């Protein structure tokens, strides 16, 4: 007498599971990655978390499973390693795990004069911020375009809008992300894939410590919490926007760049971001 309801329940769960979306969040062990994962899980989206550090991702996964009842896969991987994006895709393909939403969040910055920074560190940053992001967009974008649906969120920066002494290479990588993302938005929308680029300003994450960057009083006043930044990105993605700048003051900064000479922009950035 009890077997029929059990079979019905199993069938219902199977149908429901087949309708569930799954997102891949890179850089999911800290900062904005935590917020993206939490916001998506709250919407009932299953997750794949990818970053170098396993322990914080396992803690996050356990919390999200308990609070939202979503399926969470943890994949420790160094995306700065050459070929890492392809290996990540192959790992997911081997388990028939399809990605509906790609949050290309992994990245970091380096602060300091270009010639005073070991070129190997700069190359490693470019590998992660530019090459890995591009390869991830390619391998997962191909699947999305073939299915005729999918969403890709790229995380750039407010620094993408001007040259930035002291963050020369980092700002250049984010300029690439913004330009790349807006171009992909137009290329892929007719194939059913939405591409949105999020440009955060200064945000309370581990960025400053990792970049060994000072925080000026002016910059501290403009600092945003990570939650509203992540919300702005996912909201813009859901509305199909090409790009979004998080925060009113940051929007003003980007707009002012249209009205000021580039030499003035460089001088302002050096003052705001410190020596």
UniProtKB/TrEMBL annotation:
Keyword Oxidoreductase found: yes
Molecular functions (GO terms): oxidoreductase activity
UniProtKB keywords: Oxidoreductase
GO CC aspect terms: membrane
Pfam families assigned: adh_short (PF00106)
Superkingdom per UniProt: Bacteria
Keyword Magnesium: no
InterPro entries xrefs: NAD(P)-bd_dom_sf, Sc_DH/Rdtase_CS, SDR_fam
PROSITE patterns in UniProt: ADH_SHORT
Transmembrane segments: none
Family: Belongs to the short-chain dehydrogenases/reductases (SDR) family.
The protein's name in its UniProt record: Short-chain dehydrogenase
Organism (species): Aureimonas phyllosphaerae
């Amino acid at each position: 007498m009890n077997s029929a309801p059990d079979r019905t329940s199993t069938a219902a769960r199977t149908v429901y599971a087949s309708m569930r979306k799954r997102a891949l969040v890179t850089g999911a062990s800290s900062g904005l990655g935590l917020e993206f994962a939490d916001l998506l899980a709250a919407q009932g989206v299953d997750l794949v978390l990818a970053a170098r550090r396993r322990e914080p991702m396992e803690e996050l996964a356990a919390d999200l499973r308990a609070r939202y009842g979503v399926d969470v896969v943890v994949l420790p991987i160094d995306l700065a390693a050459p070929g890492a994006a392809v290996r990540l895709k192959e790992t997911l393909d081997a388990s028939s795990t399809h990605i509906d939403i790609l949050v290309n969040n992994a990245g970091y910055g380096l602060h300091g004069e270009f010639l005073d920074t070991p070129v190997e560190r700069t190359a490693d940053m470019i590998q992660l911020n530019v090459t890995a992001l591009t390869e991830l967009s390619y391998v997962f974008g191909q699947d999305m375009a073939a299915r005729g649906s999918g969403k890709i969120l790229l995380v750039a920066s407010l620094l993408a809008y001007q040259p930035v002494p002291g963050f020369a290479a980092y700002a250049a990588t984010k300029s690439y992300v913004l330009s790349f993302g807006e171009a992909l938005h137009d290329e892929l929308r007719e194939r059913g894939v939405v591409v949105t680029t999020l440009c955060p300003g200064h945000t309370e994450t581990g960025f400053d410590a990792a970049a060994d960057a000072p925080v000026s009083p002016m910059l501290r006043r403009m600092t945003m919490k990570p939650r509203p930044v992540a919300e702005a990105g996912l909201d813009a993605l859901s509305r199909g926007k090409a790009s979004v700048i998080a925060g009113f003051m940051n929007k003003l900064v980007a707009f002012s760049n249209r009205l000021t000479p580039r030499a003035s922009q460089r001088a302002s950035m050096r003052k705001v971001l410190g020596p």
